[in-house]
Input
Amino acid sequence: MGLFSIFEPPDPELVVREHGPMVHRHLKRIFGPQADTDDAFQMVFIEVLRSLPSFRGQAKLSTWIRRITWNVAYQEMRSQYRRPKIVSFEDDGHGDDLDAESEAATHEALGHLYTGLENLDPKQRMAVVMHDIEGQTLKEISQALGRPLQTVASQLRAGRSQLCAWMRGDALVEIDNKHEEVSS
Output
């Protein structure tokens, strides 16, 4: 019996309004600042609202929604893993006080970083984003994703190694071959 089964479930608009910014922020960190995250955002809240009656209250609602966000993002990455990647460098209207050369260099570096992240195995990508960008501990990542701590540590180490090689320009043959090795 879920926490909300004896009470009237919260208003869906209130849930989206209260937790939407957090979900949007996490999706942008996972998929990159230029990514269109609208579909993933909708999938997260479809799952949240569908599962809300079974929410048991063992964690904060925001923690529960964050885990759903990560799971939806992971499934989306897996489904897009074989598709070709296109990175857009459109101006987002921020950074007007930077000179054009610095802004271009920063934009290029971020684009290169997110392209590298896109080329990682989805499990490695989740570990890198959650740890290095969102600041989660290995224990928190392990609990959130339901993976053993050593597995998360191994995925983080491998992801960092491949991302560093990508950033240095050492194109790893392994990254290109992974597209052939992925199984459904």
Notes: Residues 84-89, 172-184 have pLDDT under 50 and may be disordered.
